[in-house]
């Protein structure tokens, strides 16, 4: 709660600062820009020459005479920093840092509060088996941030290296830091994980990494190759399903309480969420009038209600009013009706800003009209077919599908802005965007996995530790094959029948080598030590990760110095 309040306050501070700076500067150019076409719109070489200019005035003039260097997103951060906050660089760095935290929070919060509940409800509605739900919907829920970030980064030809580094940086963080931390945390419990599930996941991840290594070495890929690479995940799902079925038939799952054969993935997407923490806010404190202690709690709630709502609304309301939510705990007919009305309008705005051309009043106005018409029809239908007491029972799949689509839309918007901000920070600070993807982006997307898996391992007993370790190897497979795979499919499809050239990055191959060494280390140590998690495994993985990161930073610094000389 305190972290959310801090971020909401930071959001208001950033917005107020931007408005004050904007209205007190003589420049009249518009800061917020429409989405630029995907391919060929970024000239990385021209943007790199920005660092050679002397002061912020020269850089501002350079930006005014050239296309934006970071096309992703709706805000031109370089113009903001050099042309409107150029006289106050410390303020500029502070605002960009706060905005970076806000975007990370929004991406994670959208995934956990809207995206994952939709997936969980759809899994129950479709009656998916625990194994299929675990390796598909659970992995999608855990890896959504990486997938969206990868898809966005591949929309610009000069930022594709960010996509590779973000995904592989997240895989390295999860398979080394998260597994290492969990192993050290449960070392005294002598937890023994299932061997068959571990070998299946690690061997599958090694095969995926070797395939990706071949693609990077070859240097180019076409549509068929990208589709084949993505379809490897279907093969992994089939193998997981067959192995789980054989395990259940053999009776192992019954003997081990579901831990054996990796069947411990039968857990909800939102693990360990405590409803009590939000009861007072969700119910308006109505249920706390039974005794003095609860009465005081309610009074404190009422005293904090107005300022908290003021801080929360800028980040909460836009998503709540456009993403349909049909869960029992968060159902509201008012929000539901507004969400189905405003969601088509938001989609119309995004379509218009993406494909905006010269004939605005002829085409885009029609798009807005269609969005308004569809939203009005859906709003009237929702008003007369829903009740205040609970979510609808009929047409539930349509509501869930709408929530899924809009949560994906918001996640994509936020990831798009996040990638654009990271690229701009790279140019401003003289840091390679690929390094920011390997570190900042990967850490921001994976820190939730660390907290969730660590909590699960500490509080869930042997089964919780099994699920945590299984997720640390199943989720990276999903992130690589689906995150990078779909990114390659969309990129190759847009440039069909030509091949897509993969950016040459020898340091990326080095990261993959360290990643493979970490997997081999986990294999050898666990098999040698009877599949028990301990300090040897965890310490070795943490050492390899920080050694890999240190080596990458040293090489990048040396490369930057050679360019300067």
From TrEMBL:
The lineage of its organism: Eukaryota, Viridiplantae, Streptophyta, Embryophyta, Tracheophyta. It comes from the Eukaryota. It comes from Vigna radiata var. radiata. It is a multi-pass membrane protein. GO terms for molecular function: antiporter activity; monoatomic cation transmembrane transporter activity. This is Cation/calcium exchanger 2-like. Residues 97-241, 400-550 form the Sodium/calcium exchanger membrane region domain. The keyword Transmembrane applies. PANTHER family: CATION CALCIUM EXCHANGER (PTHR12266:SF35), NA+/CA2+ K+ INDEPENDENT EXCHANGER (PTHR12266). Pfam families: Na_Ca_ex. It is found in: Membrane. Gene3D superfamilies: NCX, central ion-binding region. Its main location: membrane. Belongs to the Ca(2+):cation antiporter (CaCA) (TC 2.A.19) family. Cation/calcium exchanger (CCX) subfamily. The gene is LOC106774699. Keywords: Antiport, Ion transport, Membrane, Potassium, Potassium transport, Sodium, Sodium transport, Transmembrane, Transmembrane helix, Transport. The chain crosses the membrane at residues 5-23, 90-108, 128-152, 164-186, 198-217, 223-242, 334-353, 365-384, 396-415, 421-444, 465-487, 507-527, 536-555. GO terms for biological process: potassium ion transport; sodium ion transport. GO terms for cellular component: membrane.
């Amino acid at each position: 709660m305190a972290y959310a309040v801090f971020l909401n306050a930071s959001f208001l501070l950033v917005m107020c600062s931007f408005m004050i700076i904007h209205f007190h500067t003589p420049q009249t150019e518009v800061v917020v820009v429409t989405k630029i076409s995907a391919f060929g719109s970024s000239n990385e070489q021209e943007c790199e020459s920005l660092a050679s200019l002397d002061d912020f005035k020269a850089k501002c003039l350079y930006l005014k005479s050239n296309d934006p260097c970071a096309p992703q997103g709706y805000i031109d951060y370089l113009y903001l920093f050099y042309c409107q906050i150029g006289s106050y660089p410390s303020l500029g760095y502070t605002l960009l840092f706060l905005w970076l935290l806000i975007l990370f929070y929004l991406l994670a919060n959208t995934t956990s509060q809207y995206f994952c509940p939709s997936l969980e409800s759809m899994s129950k509605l479709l009656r998916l088996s625990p194994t299929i739900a675990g390796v598909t919907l659970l992995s999608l829920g855990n890896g959504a941030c990486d997938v969206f970030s990868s898809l966005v980064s591949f929309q610009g030809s000069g930022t594709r290296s960010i996509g590779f580094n973000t995904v592989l940086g997240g895989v390295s963080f999860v398979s080394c830091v998260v597994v290492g931390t969990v192993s050290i945390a449960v070392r005294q419990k002598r937890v023994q994980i299932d061997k068959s599930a571990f070998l299946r996941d690690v061997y599958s991840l090694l095969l995926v990494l070797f395939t990706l290594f071949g693609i990077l070495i070859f240097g180019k890929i076409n549509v068929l190759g990208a589709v084949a690479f993505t379809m490897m995940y279907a093969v992994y799902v089939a193998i997981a399903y067959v192995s789980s079925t054989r395990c259940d038939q053999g009776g192992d799952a019954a003997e081990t309480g579901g831990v054996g054969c990796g069947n411990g993935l039968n857990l909800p997407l939102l693990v360990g969420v405590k409803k009590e923490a939000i009861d007072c806010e969700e119910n308006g404190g109505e249920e706390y009038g039974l005794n003095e202690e609860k009465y005081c709690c309610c009074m404190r709630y009422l005293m904090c209600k107005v300022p908290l709502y003021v801080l929360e609304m800028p980040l909460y309301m836009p998503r709540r009013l456009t993403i349909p939510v049909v869960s029992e705990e968060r159902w509201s007919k008012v929000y539901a009706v507004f969400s189905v009305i405003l969601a088509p309008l938001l989609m119309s705005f995004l379509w218009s800003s993406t494909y905006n051309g010269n004939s605005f009043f002829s085409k885009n106005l029609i798009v807005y009209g269609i969005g308004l018409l569809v939203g009005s029809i859906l709003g009237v239908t929702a008003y007369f077919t829903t009740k205040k007491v609970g979510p609808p029972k009929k047409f539930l799949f349509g509501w869930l599908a709408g929530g899924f689509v809009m949560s994906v839309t918001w996640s994509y918007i936020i990831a798009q802005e996040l990638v654009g901000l990271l690229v701009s920070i790279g140019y401003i600070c003289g840091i390679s965007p690929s390094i920011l993807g390997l570190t900042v982006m990967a850490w921001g997307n994976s820190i939730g996995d660390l907290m969730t898996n660590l909590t699960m391992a500490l509080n869930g007993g042997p089964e919780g530790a099994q699920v945590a370790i299984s997720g640390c190897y199943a989720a990276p497979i999903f992130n690589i094959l689906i995150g990078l795979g779909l990114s390659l499919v969309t990129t190759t499809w847009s440039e069909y029948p030509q091949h897509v050239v993969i950016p040459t990055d020898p340091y990326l191959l080095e990261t993959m080598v360290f990643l493979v060494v970490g997997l081999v280390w986990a294999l050898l140590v666990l098999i040698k030590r009877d599949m028990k998690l301990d300090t040897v495994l965890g310490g070795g993985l943490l050492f390899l990760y920080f050694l890999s990161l240190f080596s990458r930073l040293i090489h990048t610094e040396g490369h930057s110095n050679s360019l300067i000389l």
